[in-house]
Amino acid sequence: MNTSASIAQIIVALSVGYVWIFRFDNIVKEFNQYGLNDLTRTIVGGTKIILATLLVAGIWYPALVLIPALLMGFLMAAAQYFHVKVNNPWSKRLPSLFLLALCVFIAAVSLKLIS
């Protein structure tokens, strides 16, 4: 697999892990701001942690990369929707937008659209 895609996979995985493990208090505030319940937050968090783990495993097993990258990208697009819905400033939107772009890049490399 492409070295830059592997670096992108690590960046996405570490970012998701950091936010959902070490900054969980911010996640709770954001989901409350969005009007989403605790069950939704738990499902999204668990899904993101699993997908992040698969992206890291995909460094050694490239067949694992495409679906997690697309699903993580979908979750980042959903984050963008909710940031816009509550009119958050760009400083709050940029992290998920950057991770969305990385997920699109990872998926494109996985599909061999980018070498």
TrEMBL record:
Record carries keyword Membrane: yes
Localization in the cell: Membrane
InterPro entries for the chain: DoxX (IPR032808)
Keyword Transmembrane helix: yes
Keywords: Membrane, Transmembrane, Transmembrane helix
Membrane-topology annotation of the record: Multi-pass membrane protein
Main location: membrane
Membrane-spanning intervals of the chain: 6-28, 49-82, 94-114
Protein name in UniProt: DoxX family protein
